[in-house]
């Protein structure tokens, strides 16, 4: 148990800021784009949100290779599931499949903290997952990474029930900006996925 807590705590505080917000008409996922190697800024345009289904995306925090592998595996699995059933997978099912993947590899874990969000017939949902497969649905918002403590402060203060995706996007940008201002491991441009029943709209905000 102590080992599990140590792994989760270390990855939770890995250098990045990612977050998700539940809105009345969908969800918003947002990240910054700075990749670090210790004290070195290795890249300032690193992608940290991946589309894994027509209305589901996932943010990554942790080891880049591990997170990218999880995103690729889940995109393939969800595409295969849609081919087999003829319909899109629910957000809950996608999160549970991701949790199973992580749990099955818990002895040699994918170094990752993830926010999975999307829209299905029941509305918008976001889930957070740790490297051992723990799965939590976040009814309002969630965040991961070293800048999450700062982002949570903004989200706790400014989130309101009934927010639209456009309002959620503005709040997400403010939260990521605040994290970038105080967390040295977070920086670069802001990446946004606005997810509604119409699909995923991607935005890049240069800051």
Would you summarize the structure shown here?
With 207 residues, this protein is of the alpha+beta class. The protein contains five helices and twelve strands.
3D structure, described in words:
The chain has 207 residues and is of the alpha+beta class. It has one domain (2-205): Aminohydrolase, N-terminal nucleophile (Ntn) domain (Glutamine Phosphoribosylpyrophosphate, subunit 1, domain 1). Helices cover 37% and strands 33% of the residues. The chain contains five helices and twelve strands. The strands form three sheets. Strands 10-1-2-11-12 form a five-stranded antiparallel beta sheet, covered by helices on one side. The chain has a five-stranded antiparallel beta sheet with strand order 5-6-7-8-9. 45% of the residues are buried.
SSE arrangement:
Layout lengths: L1 H11 L5 E6 L2 E6 L3 E3 L2 E4 L5 E5 L2 E7 L1 H22 L5 H14 L7 E9 L2 E7 L5 E3 L3 E4 L3 H11 L6 H18 L7 E7 L2 E7 L2
Antiparallel strand pairs: 1-2, 1-10, 2-11, 3-4, 5-6, 6-7, 7-8, 8-9, 11-12
List its salient traits.
globular, Glutamine Phosphoribosylpyrophosphate, subunit 1, domain 1, alpha+beta, 207 residues
**Count of discrete alpha- or pi-helical segments spanning 4 or more residues:** 5
Supply the CATH architecture: 4-Layer Sandwich
Low-confidence stretches: 5-13
Shape: globular
Radius of gyration, in angstroms, nearest whole number: 16 Å
Strand order of the largest sheet: 10-1-2-11-12
Could you report the average pLDDT, rounded to the nearest whole number? 92
CATH class call: Alpha Beta
Stated plainly, the CATH topology is called: Glutamine Phosphoribosylpyrophosphate, subunit 1, domain 1
Q: Ends: how far apart? A: 41 Å
Number of strands: 12
The CATH H-level homologous superfamily: Aminohydrolase, N-terminal nucleophile (Ntn) domain
Number of domains: 1
Structural class determined from secondary elements: alpha+beta
**How large a portion of the residues is in β-strands, by DSSP E?**
25-35%
Task: Give a quick account of the main beta sheet: strands, pairing sense, barrel closure.
Answer: 5 strands, antiparallel
Amount of helix: 25-40%
Order of helices and strands: HEEEEEEHHEEEEHHEE
């Amino acid at each position: 148990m102590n080992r599990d807590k140590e792994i989760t705590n270390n990855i939770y505080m890995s250098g990045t800021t990612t977050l998700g917000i539940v809105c009345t008409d969908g969800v918003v996922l947002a990240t910054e784009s700075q990749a670090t190697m210790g004290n070195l800024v290795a890249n300032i345009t690193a992608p940290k949100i991946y589309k894994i289904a027509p209305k589901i995306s996932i943010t990554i925090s942790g080891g880049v290779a591990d997170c990218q592998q999880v995103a690729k595996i889940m995109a393939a699995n969800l595409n295969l599931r849609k081919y087999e059933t003829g319909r899109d997978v629910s957000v809950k099912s996608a999160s549970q499949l991701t949790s199973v993947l992580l749990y099955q590899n818990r002895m040699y874990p994918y170094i990752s903290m993830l926010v999975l969000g999307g829209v299905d017939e029941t509305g918008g949902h976001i889930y957070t997952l740790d490297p051992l497969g723990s799965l939590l649905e976040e009814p309002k918002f969630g965040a991961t990474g070293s800048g999450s403590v700062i982002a949570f402060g903004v989200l706790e203060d400014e989130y309101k029930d009934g927010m639209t995706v456009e309002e959620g996007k503005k709040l997400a940008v403010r939260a990521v900006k605040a994290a970038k201002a105080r967390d040295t491991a977070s920086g670069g441009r802001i990446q946004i996925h606005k997810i509604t029943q119409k699909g995923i709209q991607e935005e890049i905000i240069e800051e």
